[in-house]
Amino acid sequence: MPYLFIFGLGYSAKRIKASVEALGWQVSATGSDGDVDFEDADAVRRELARASHVLSSVPPDRESGTDPALERYASDLGERWMGYLSSTGVYGDAGGAWVDEASPTGTGRRSARAEADAKWLELGARVFRLPGIYGPSRSALDRVRSGKAHRIHMPGQVFSRVHVEDVASGVTAALTGDAPAGAYNLGDDLPASHNAVTEEACRLLGVEPPPLQTMDEAGLSDMARGFYAENRRVANGKAKRVLGWEPEYPTYREGLRSLL
Description:
The structure is a single chain. By secondary structure, the chain is an alpha/beta fold. It has a single domain, classed as NAD(P)-binding Rossmann-like Domain (Rossmann fold, 3-Layer(aba) Sandwich), CATH 3.40.50.720. The protein contains 11 helices and 12 strands. It has helices at residues 11-21, 41-50, 68-73, 111-122, 140-146, 164-176, 194-205, 215-218, 222-228, 237-243, 252-259, and strands spanning 3-7, 26-29, 53-56, 81-87, 98-99, 126-130, 132-134, 151-152, 161-163, 182-185, 212-213, 233-234. It has a 6-stranded parallel sheet, sandwiched between helices. A two-stranded parallel sheet has the order 5-12. The protein is globular, with a radius of gyration of 19 Å. It comes from Paraurantiacibacter namhicola.
């Protein structure tokens, strides 16, 4: 029976766990909802010794910038199948142009993420670069309902995004198939502005969209401002060709409707 060990049982990793368990896999994980304590090195190494596949969803440490899983357990990973949930933020700003897995990385604000991404690739991992992830309890619908939605006047600004279930199906395709090591972008088919997604959520809920504002008027945090500092479209063709993956929610429209 295949055995998957996950570093960090977060939002996306929980969906991946459910997906492979439905196929009969055994799964254990670290994290607040996991069954193994990340700090218990003996317990982690026992699980790694049993695991046929290892997946990390642990982001770089905010203070040191290092990857906690690699810092602590890189020497225990061996030659088994490895995967890493990365970010399309490694591509930096492309001025609205398309980027794919051959595009340069490490030039954007996510420098620590880019370094971790590169280290996992060096180890022979399948690195899944993810754009903005949305799904149950984490979507424009929830922001509109809570009164926290906004529209920022930034003509030409676009982002890619992906439904969490499409993350799970893409990673599951790589786990169960013969996917070679390397990077894979898992994003939807229609990069769009943040405003377009907010407007669609408002339409579905039957409410008026929030007014257009500048970033100063919206009072955005530094983190939110950083989100708007980069503009790119993320191509997903390699994942479709190599993994045989097709997003169930190819655009934000289908994704939001499914969450309604």
